[in-house]
User: Fold this.
Amino acid sequence: MYLSRLIYTSKISEEFEQSDIKSILDKSKKNNKKNHITGMLCFNRKYFLQCIEGSRQAVNETYQRILNDTRHTNILMLEYQEIYVREFDCWTMGYIPETRLTNPINLKYSDNDLFTPHDMSGPSAYQLMLALKDYVPLIE
Assistant:
C-alpha cells in the first residue's frame, strides 16, 4: 500500500474553545494509532497547520473527518503526495503551539515571523514543520 502525506491549514471557528485542543489531541492520538497515522499539529489562536501521514486510504479517511469538524473553517489543502518514508513516524500526533521560540523559524519559511500558514506554500509549510520538529520541544 502506498504511503501518503497530506498537509492542510485552517482557521479556527467561533465554536472553538481553548479547551478543545486537548480533546482534539486525545482523540487524534487514539484514532491515529489504530489507523497507523502519524503527523504533527501546529496551532495558535487563529490557525491550525497539520500534517498527516499513512496509507492513502487512512489519510483520505482522516482528512474527510477533519473536513467535517466545525471547530475550524477555511480548510485549505497545501500538499498531498505519495511518500517513501514518514517524517513523523514516532508521533501519533505531535503538537507544537506557537511560542517565542517559533518566531525565527516562521520567518525562515514565510514572509514574516508570525504563524500564518494560510499564506504559505505546501513545500514551505512542510519545511516549517520539519524545522519545528527538530528545534522546538514537542508536547505529547
In short: The first strand starts at residue 3 and ends at 12. The chain is about 35% helix and 30% strand. The mean pLDDT is 89. The CA atoms of residues 59 and 65 lie 10 Å apart.
